[in-house]
From TrEMBL:
Gene3D superfamilies from the UniProt entry: MetI-like
Record keywords: Cell membrane, Membrane, Transmembrane, Transmembrane helix, Transport
Domain of life assignment: Bacteria
Domain ABC transmembrane type-1: 70-283
InterPro entries reported for this sequence: ABC_transporter_permease, MetI-like, MetI-like_sf
Cellular-component GO terms for this entry: plasma membrane
Pfam families documented for this protein: BPD_transp_1
Identification of the protein by name: Sugar ABC transporter permease
Membrane spanning stretches: 12-32, 74-95, 107-128, 159-180, 267-286
Acyltransferase in keyword set: no
Amino acid sequence: MKKRKLKQTLQYEIFLIPAFIAFTTFTIIPLIKTIMYSVTDFDGVRHEMNFVGLKNFITVFQDEVMRHSLFNTIFYTFCTMVLINLLAIPLAVFLDKKTKIKSLERAVFFFPSIVSALLLGYVWGYILSPMQTGALNSLLSIFDVGPFGFTATEWGAKISIILVAVWTSTGWYATIYLAYLQAIPSEYYEAAAIDGASKWQQFKSVTLPMLAPGLTVNTLLLLTNGLKVYDLPYALTKGGPGYSNYTVTQVIIQRGLSEKQYGPSTALATIFIIIVAVIATVQYMTMRKREEDLS
């Protein structure tokens, strides 16, 4: 019996081997090499490397562009995480209503998340162009208003990037909340109504606690996707004006591939990996505790 059970277990686990090989090849090995290169003077060409200690890490904190990219990435992640969750939950409640056009409503809100973020960035870059020929400025010129430099200033560009990201992703995350909403038994609402609970009290005491697992999932996804963002800010503003809206991934790619600064680039990547790991761990533990409190 033990041999048969072991044989069955091995038959199931053998299917994990391709995934394990792929994960090791494309994630674990590059991660180890990144950390290794971060303490050397590797230039991407020669195989000989010299140990330089923390020199590359000191360079990162002395480099204004790299420091600014860390701030931009964390600021973008925090703002999108908060705004999308605040909008996605009421949107999911709205889409959960039984109407004749509910399928159309869901499709309309979900559609922006299907299109490539890079493509949407270029489209919105044209719409929000600070030039007179920009789509929005052209429209406003009909009323003798503008032109406005929507992406011409540092904070104008930051706000534009965040708003476009929220517009793009809210429907997708609302769909996740919608799935959790539809799993809530109707008996809970019926019992709350019998007890005299108002719609708001039902939402606060029934809907929100039952959405706690969805909130944990969405927050983790928003956190990881926000911290590794590259395509949307790059397509919308090219990281500008100047380098004021560079993200960490953009700096790593630009310095590592274009300028051949492999040491500082891998050091920045290593710092970023540590930051992501710490934030994700703290966030997950906090959300799990919150989920238990609401349940």
